Amino acid sequence: MTRDLLIRGMIAGIVAAFIVTLFARLVAEPQVDLAIAFEASHDQAAHSHAGHAMAMPADPEPELVSRDTQKGIGLLTATALYGAAVGGIFSLVFAVIYGRISTLGPRSLSLLMAIGAFIAIALVPAIKYPATPPAVGQHETVVFRTLTYFAMIALSVVAMVVAIKVGRAFANKAGAFNAMLIAAGAYVAIIIAVQFALPAINEVPADFPAVVLWRFRIASLGVQATLWVVIGIGFGAMADRVLRRQAERR
Q1: How far apart are CA 15 and CA 90, in angstroms?
Q2: What keyword terms does UniProt attach to this protein (predicted)?
Q3: What is the pLDDT of residues 105-130, one digit of tens each?
């Protein structure tokens, strides 16, 4: 059964990747183009000022991958690989939880897991370290910013697991609804502590267009929300069929 669920999880992730690619092309990529244009205009202005002291301006560096390729086949390939990996991991976690930790049906459990994953992996980390388009962020701090972002994701996932265990511990004593509130409170409390503990990063240029930055960040969250919703609904439907067939064979 685990193998069947794994295959369907990867399929759900790939399907989600196609939808995410379309969403990104329509909503996110135009903001990236605007950010690149902003960066190019700054570079051109810097070169024009420096050109007075130079006999001959240096040739621009060749473009390794064209912009059309980046937002076309490159974007689709990257999202397909990511979607397949995420969908596979999602299905394995589902296989562990279903029937052991949760008594929910396949569709409900899958959708609930997708919502939890979006909150823990995308939404909460974005509150501390929101997505940034090109021209935002210094090259010298790329490694540091990457490490802190993934640390925020890891700690958010751990906090979610701890909160679920706390809620389960209080389920029999306080009731399901109160246990859910306790779990949510535990998660929020841990996340507040983590967000205060991790360093703040603000490298947005003062003259960067606020509208472009806002739309890019909303689009980034939209991409993640689309991915998880499609995986949650799509995998839930396929898992329900697999589990029904298995039950019929018994």
Answers
A1: 14
A2: Membrane, Transmembrane, Transmembrane helix
A3: 899 999 999 999 999 999 999 999 99
